[in-house]
């Protein structure tokens, strides 16, 4: 069963209200019921992809940088992080693959906007010799860029912008924002990525007590989830 156009419009409205923290309670109840109903639906057809909430999309719409699912489940770190991006593609920090013409065209093709966060989009070069330049001009050893530990006073070395286009070594774990930490870090009970993505419930399948080993940055990694 497909939702009628009316219900889709209602959902879009509810989403808008939700974003603005003004969802009327009765609308929220109705749309929750719709989503619950979708979840109970049987699988999608063979040429479709199923969102976590049950919505069916055309196949190949997952990890393409564009959020198609109402719940954003087609563009998540958990789903996309190990995708191999082919030739002529750009890898978004969370793992989606977009066309290699995407960076710096003033349009965000990546759900996390990493294609437009590149320093070169602003004509900047953050690596100078053996050093990396923080936003505020501070210089740190370039090995400290995107290593899971905040070294810049302004936190810039552990951000989507600083880590865009970075590919970790195969034995490492790549964080959602793009940082590289030890491969053992994944779901082992301690947070190693500054955004906590190595211990995400969605990735590890369980909520566990975590004690951060690193100082969390004051500049939060941007969240791009729809929900
Ligand atoms: C993007 O926008 C900036 C500022 O508005 C402009 O200088 C630049 O030329 C634009 N780049 C492209 C590829 O359109
Ligand atoms: C998790 O892995 C990291 C990186 O290898 C390590 O430093 C940390 O001690 C580990 N935590 C636990 C609880 O084993």
From TrEMBL:
Residues 1-22 form the signal peptide. CDD domains: LDLa. It is a single-pass membrane protein. SMART domains: LDLa (SM00192). Keywords: Disulfide bond, Membrane, Repeat, Signal, Transmembrane, Transmembrane helix. It is found in: Membrane. The keyword Transmembrane applies. Pfam families: Ldl_recept_a. InterPro entries: LDLR, LDLR_class-A_CS, LDrepeatLR_classA_rpt. Disulfide bonds join 44-56, 51-69, 85-97, 92-110, 134-152, 168-180, 175-193. One of its GO terms (cellular component) is endomembrane system. This is (apollo) hypothetical protein. It comes from Parnassius apollo.
